[in-house]
Design brief:
Elements lengths: L1 H12 L3 E6 L8 H4 L3 E8 L8 H11 L1 H6 L1 E9 L1 H6 L4
Parallel strand pairs: 2-3
Antiparallel strand pairs: 1-2
């Protein structure tokens, strides 16, 4: 599932960097985990985020993962950055 999320985000958002961590094991017993939906954390670096607010960026991510959000993803924590913001943080 993690790999599929990463592929979908790379393609849909033309992302330069996507890192997805499956944190489902941290939520065992949680009501959302009972339905089978996973808990994920994602870092996405995309030029498509330029000029977009944080909410607009999140909407882009949710649109890219619309199918997965229906049943396979219960929770998604995300950090959305432009390539310039990523570089400012000292990453490459």
């Amino acid at each position: 599932m993690r790999d599929r999320i990463e592929r979908r985000l790379r393609q849909a958002l033309e992302a330069e960097l996507v890192e997805v961590v499956d944190e489902s094991h941290l939520h065992v017993g949680h009501a959302g985990a009972q339905s089978g939906g996973g808990h994920f954390r994602a870092l996405i670096v995309s030029p498509r985020f330029r000029g977009a607010s944080r909410v607009e960026r999140q909407r882009q991510v949710y649109a890219a993962l619309a199918q997965e959000m229906e049943s396979e993803i219960h929770a998604l924590s995300m950090q959305t950055l432009t390539p310039e913001e990523w570089a400012e943080r000292g990453a490459s």
